[in-house]
Design goal:
The chain has 632 residues and is α/β, with parallel strands linked by helices. Helix content is 28%, strand content 21%. Helix 1 packs antiparallel against helix 2. The radius of gyration is 26 Å and the shape is globular.
Length: 632
């Protein structure tokens, strides 16, 4: 593909000396160019998905930077041989971030503390949607800077280490008002803002718990009192370094108190909404009438809530783990597992157009036998336009021949593919997935616009409903906070925060039934196909984002969840935080208890599915819940 890129400001003036990175689908820079005097740069490269543009003098001091960076999706389906794109850069205002590390040293060009990682910081608007703004911290900066647009308020979310709690995504929101360029002339005292934002969140959660009739333990009340005292101590000293250290301490106490509050509230919510009394009539049993004083023993055999595990047929085909003899299935039942997602990858079913392998894929994981064994089955990733490194990973999950089709031809292929799947796997599979991970940069391999993506969802649903009218249809997605979604690409119409996409489906009357939310926060990946990870989130953020999606009026499924039992080695350079310390078996178990308790307590949540029973080829590194011998 020949790419002609023009970089200019929002007044149409060409910008010379801008750095333009050509990115592949996984976000890797495959080529870099510098704009000439006319603001232009040319690439001749296949496999480029996005252009990432940094303004002139980006490597210099923040005071020399006039514009915010931006990003551009290369349009066209199928992708054209020549692509002409224009990237506009908005004006930037640099704002000082006064920040200190855990030892009380000010962050500067000389103190490059791991406390602040610009790669793990994002700006959001007051509606919690991704917004322009970025941290700049070069060797020429006396301190880190937050580059803000001239207009608009911003919240800041970033990984931060809170003493006594962990390294977790924390928020600074200036009392809920956000930060603006015109009001932040004196800079932002980051340590204090993070602590104050957490304290305000804690007081709101406490008030909400009291209004809801929840009882907080004396331990949690003591923690809240300690948090208040720690916050008040910040104002009792005028020395900024000391304030910063007190603020970090207060932040850790607030986060710990907030976690205890959320967990206790979840436990009580379970009693309200899940563990309701039931009256069971006992009639004549074993030839005897029931009589007062008779001892009745009972055991619950099934439950409506779906607890799932993804067993990968690539690593655990039925030939390796026979239903009749492998201890795996017995262990899953002992754990209460009653749901299995069945992966039906298009790339395996029809790598060559028209040459389908439905029987072969079915035999690896026979749906009829799994259903007879008592598991509820759901279709998974049969429509998933994921792409990775070019060219070898473009056909990993969707067939390569799709890249050559027009949007109309893609709809025809989608209808035929889904129809064949439903005909083969129904009635053994009860639930069907319309699309997986729509409107995200790395999962839009065929480069569809919003309207075209909605048409795909409608086409899939039509194919299912024509064959199974009462089917339960799910739309599944990840990056549910909007992390990694660039506001410029969002405006271009190629990316959306998942709940925005769901809202559009509802506005257009698309007939789907349930919302799928992936929750890998805290996990990291280390395989040939997948790398990177998901910064860990506080339990109150997890609860809040689920509640945010429930306002859409559909049942919620936590379709994918996993955290590791090991911490990445330092040489890997991964920074996704930690929760009460580096991951190990005990911490993974504690997170499972906290997460499942929280999600199960929310009445709108109908499913929680863990990704991979063992560590073998697990999506999240060492994310299994069993050892290799299938013991928990």
């Amino acid at each position: 593909m020949l790419i002609h890129c023009l970089v200019q400001n929002d007044k149409g003036m060409p910008l010379a000396g801008a750095t333009v990175n050509a990115l592949d689908a996984s976000g890797v820079v495959v080529e870099t160019g510098i704009t000439n005097a006319e603001g232009k740069v040319v690439f001749d490269r296949d496999g480029v998905i996005n252009l990432e543009v940094f303004p002139p003098k980006w490597e210099e001091a923040a005071s020399d930077i006039q514009y915010l960076p931006s990003k551009k999706r290369l349009p066209g389906t199928p992708r054209p041989s020549v692509n002409d794109v224009v990237v506009e850069l908005a004006d930037a205002v640099p704002v000082k971030l006064r920040a200190y590390d855990l030892d009380g040293k000010p962050l500067s060009s000389a103190v490059k503390s791991s406390q602040l990682n610009p790669a793990q910081a994002s700006c959001f608007d007051l509606q919690d949607l991704p917004a322009s703004g970025v941290i700049h911290w070069s060797k020429h900066d006396a301190c880190p800077y937050l580059l803000l647009p001239q207009n608009g308020a911003r919240k800041l979310a970033l990984l931060w280490t809170a003493p006594g709690y962990g390294r977790i995504v924390c928020w600074a929101d200036n009392g809920g008002r956000g930060f603006t360029a015109c009001e932040a002339n004196d800079g932002i005292f980051l340590n204090r803002e993070l602590a104050l934002t957490a304290w305000q969140r804690l007081t709101k959660e406490q008030a909400a718990a009291e209004r809801g009739g929840y009882t907080l333990s004396s331990s949690t009340q003591d923690q809240i009192a300690q948090a208040q005292a720690a916050i008040e101590a910040i104002a009792d000293t005028s020395e900024e370094r000391q304030q910063a250290m007190l603020a970090d301490k207060a932040l850790g106490i607030c986060l710990q108190a907030g976690e205890q509050l959320v967990f206790e509230r979840a436990q009580q919510r379970i009693q309200r909404h899940r563990n309701k009394p039931r009256t069971i009539a006992v009639g004549e049993q074993f030839g005897k009438d029931a009589a007062p004083g008779m001892t009745v023993r009972y055991r619950q055999l099934t439950h409506d809530f779906k607890f799932g595990v993804f067993v990968n047929p690539d690593t655990h085909p039925i030939q390796r783990v026979p239903l009749s003899s492998s201890v795996l299935w017995e262990r899953l039942r002992e754990m209460g597992i009653n749901l299995l997602p069945i992966p039906l990858l298009w790339s395996l079913l029809e790598a060559e157009r028209g040459n389908r392998q439905d029987d072969k894929i079915y035999d690896r994981f026979p749906a009829s036998e799994l259903r007879e064994a008592g598991f509820h089955l759901k279709d998974h990733i049969s429509i998933w336009f994921w792409q990775g490194r070019y060219p070898d990973q473009w056909g990993a999950f969707m067939p390569d021949w799709l890249y050559e089709l027009s949007p109309a031809e893609i709809l025809e292929a989608v209808y035929e593919h889904k129809s064949r799947i439903v005909e083969k796997f129904s009635p053994h599979i009860q639930d069907w997935q319309a699309i997986n991970e729509a409107m995200l940069s790395h999962t839009n391999g065929v480069n569809l616009t919003l309207d075209e993506t909605v048409a795909v969802v409608e086409t899939v649903i039509r194919a299912v409903r024509e064959r199974v009218p009462n089917a339960v249809i799910e739309v599944n997605n990840c990056q549910v906070f909007g992390e990694g979604i660039h506001p410029a690409v969002q405006e271009q119409g190629y990316e959306l925060v998942p709940d925005q996409f769901y809202e559009i489906l509802l506005e257009r009357g698309v007939d789907f039934d349930v919302i799928g939310m992936q929750m890998y926060y805290g996990g990291y990946m280390d395989s040939e196909l997948f790398s990177g990870g998901f910064p860990i989130r506080h339990p109150w953020d997890i609860e809040a984002i689920i509640k945010r999606y429930t306002r859409l009026g559909k049942p919620i499924r936590i379709t994918e969840i996993s955290v590791p039992s090991s911490y990445p080695s330092p040489e890997k350079g991964l920074d996704f935080g930690f929760w009460h310390g580096p991951w190990d078996l005990e911490r993974q178990a504690a997170w499972v208890e906290m997460f499942y308790t929280l999600c199960y307590s929310l009445p709108q949540v109908k499913e929680i599915t863990w990704w991979n029973p063992t560590d073998e080829a697990a999506f999240i590194k060492d994310g299994g819940l069993m050892f290799d011998d299938y013991e928990p």
